[in-house]
Specification:
Blueprint lengths: L5 H15 L8 H14 L5 H10 L1 H11 L10 H16 L5 E6 L5 H13 L5 E7 L2 H9 L1 E3 L3 H11 L9 E4 L2 E4 L7 E5 L11 E6 L8 H14 E9 L14 E5 L4 E4 L3
Parallel strand pairs: 1-2, 1-7, 2-6, 7-8
Antiparallel strand pairs: 3-5, 4-5, 8-10, 9-10
Amino acid sequence: MNEVEIADLRRLTEVIREKYNYDFSNYAMSSFRRRIQRVLELYKFSSVDALLKRLQDEPRFVKEFVSEVTVNVTEMFRDPSFWRELRDHVLPNILLNTQSISIWHAGCSSGEEVFSMAILLREMGILNKCKIIATDLDADIIQRAKSGVYPLKNMELNQKNYVRFQGQASLDKYYREEQGKVLMDKSLIEHVSFREHNLVSGAAFSKFDLVLCRNVMIYFNQTLQNNVLKLFHESLFKYGYLVVGSKESLIWCEIANKFIVVNNEEKIYKKVKD
């Protein structure tokens, strides 16, 4: 299959924005192109025109398309050293100044990160002191996160991560197996509110002690990253923490001087100026 042309991508983003209000125009071009290529192959479309026709003829297909384009591969306790840093330093620091912790998982995808956080908080004995909001722009993936049902084959990697994180128990304490699937313990997410929220066009809706947005912004161009980082700055209490993905950074952005680097290796930043 030929490489998708830039002109085709532009047409595609315009139609989706005008008709369905999803704005992909600030996505990093190379990553967006790869994802569109994948959609064409997956659905056996002969061209971008064929994809556009289906998007226009079948509004139901739009949701599926958005899911495919924004798909995030995720795992539990990804980057175990980060989770240790969170448990040993970041959360104890937050608890010096507050009785309860508010946490935002921005771009929560299928929920593995949210369950990891809940397990960590339960092992620290502070899960009931935490208010967690998990958001994503894809309604279907939010439902998947809420359901807490995952393929059993993914658990081997998750378990390895948990061991390297040095968890207190064994990961299988937090789920049960059923017909090749894993059902997570629902009591872990009793205090989690799952919501649809679009980082591209959404506004600040609350204040948090800790915001996690890991491996989401790598798909955005600089303009969009800048806007999203401003949104996070606005959403944090002073001295609150922001965590981004291992390939992401705040150093270059407009509001860089309002944060200090807490841990450069794990990409943890602290807001020091309003």
